[in-house]
Amino acid sequence: MSEMITADLVDLDLSADTKEAAARALAERMAALGRVTDLDGFLADVAAREAQMPTGLDGGIGIPHCRSAYVTEPTLAFGRSGTGIDFGAPDGPADLIFLIAAPAGADDAHLTILSSLARQLMNAEFTSALRAADDAATAAALVRGDRPPAPAAAPAGSGASAPDDSAAASNAAASADAAAVPSAPAPDRTGQDGTPAPGETGGVDTPPAPGETGGADTTPAPGDTGGADTAAAGGARPFRIVAVTSCPTGIAHTYMAAESLENAGRAAGDVEIVVETQGSAGFTRLDPAVVAAADGVIFAHDVPVRDKDRFAGKPTVDVGVKAGISRAAELISEVRGKAERGEVTAGSAPGSPVERTGESGEGYGTKLRKWLMSGVSYMVPFVAAGGLLIALGFAIGGYQVNKAPSVMDHFMWMQADSWGALFFQIGGVAFGFLVPVLAGYIAYGMADRPGLVPGFVGGAISLTINAGFLGGLAAGLIAGGVVLGIQRVPIPAALRGIMPVVVIPLISAAIVGFLMFVVIGKPIASAQKGMTDWLNGLTGTNAVLLGALLGLMMCFDLGGPVNKVAYTFATAGIAVASPSDSAMKIMAAVMAAGMVPPLAMALATTVRGRLFTPTERENGKAAWVLGASFISEGAIPFAAGDPLRVIPASMAGGAVTGALSMTFGATLRAPHGGIFVVPLIGSPFLYLLAIAAGVCVTAAVVIVLKGMRRPAPEGTGTVPDVPAPAGGGTKEPVAA
Questions:
Q1: Which residues are catalytic?
Q2: Residue 244 forms beta bridges with which residues?
Q3: Alpha-carbon distance 327 to 324, whole Å?
């Protein structure tokens, strides 16, 4: 295998002023060496990874990275910017940019090398040496590990922001021989039989530091401290923490968070921390004895933690992976505080950003949005399956199919009416889960698995008392709040094992059931009835204005929370055996508006392709199919690159389509399907005309807006209209 980085892959005078331009400049070096086979395809994969989460880190570092089918071998490219480039880090622009490219089928050894770089980025001596390097060969040697960094502070006047205080303190306490990036796979310390050495943290690139649970030749007994920390503390037992880190790609942030947590634990002196890195190269599970002896748990992750039930019943801090990098010392203090107060989790921590209660510092509005989105995201598949089955039942069996007897009692194999009734009745059963699933997974997003029982119970009660969709929202939030309150009550260690399976479900279901039946259920049911009556009474101008409003919401964030609110509002109206005419008109307007943005972007790239980058023109081809299938997210690549033009244009077209659909009186029983359910739409030709009008409006507006901008530099895509922040870099607007 070629060396992962050479002097040809280093640019010490990177002149790019945006993260897209920086990635392109470094990727071009990879392509010139044959490491990347399709430049635009690879950059699209980099952009897709960047859209999941910004790759800027505290300390002036940017690490755009991805796994891509267009990469022939693991490759690093390094660029140093004099002015700084905004990669979304909280402390400002980055001057050290690493583009990490891994093949889609990279083996464990390759990914181990990439993870070693990630750990080295937490070493202040390493980053200082890169800032001081005076030629490309020296920088490449530093990254490969051929030339160890000198223990010196960052040179004055380098213009780079220094790592934060906690990271600097942690790095100062780390051993001077921290592993550098090897030019060949690091030796496997898991043993001949694949069994990890006692105390192994899950990576193979960093030797156990003093205070970790073991070494190559020592196996700590359960409960035995057995490390240098104990001696340093005069024989006192250290506070033991187990941690799990993971990120969407599993190449960089996963290992950087692990390194930061380990450094912070060593700096604390009386903390023993073992980290399990769940990266792309797989992971080695922590020894069950180590988990059992732990006093606290830290999850720093942006993808679900695998086998998280192992950590139930312990004080737990759950944050995003970037918090594990930038706030390691705070997380250790937080989990120690929870242990002192006796706060434990009855079950494993929620597994994704949508399901977590949120990082420290997030406002309640942000947390509420995540909780609601958790419920909606789990409900949507039931909506799609049930709605399409019901629509298919009507298409086969006619509009009297809802009066057919149960197929258990009457089913004729050769009669179309029987098959129509079968599909209708299966769809009806699926629709019956909508409100319980919504409530259950809102509670799950707040309190993880213990929230499911009271959430589902509250949602089912909402259906029983005719509180509907609004009742489900209230039941989910109440259930999650009740479980969180119970989990904060200090309990004896002997009772922790039965809390998640007996005590919490029993108490929470009883409380939620009482509140829904006796206290808040009737007012919510009255509000639901009033809203339904109001919708049924909409005619004329009011209906047109409602259609325009729903169109604006569907196109505001292209599949985000506002879009989902409008969609859920529409599907709730048709989730009954005999929906009203107004409810079916609303569903038609919502789906029509949601199809507009991707179809309009596809049309615009076809009509005026020179206004778009090559990657956007390729995305435009796929947008035809996505838009026709009612997948609004097909326009996200365009909105992410140019939100100030694409989003307003999309909203304009969506409002036109929604208003026209209501004006034409188009109706729709199916909650999804796009053009594939046109035969099930009332007034289908006028409905398609409404969509075409909105598509033309959006395409025309976006073409005019893009045509008014000043020309973009070759290869950099669009030119931001916002001023650059002080100190360089470009602060790009982020799509909602």
A1: 65, 247
A2: 276, 299
A3: 6
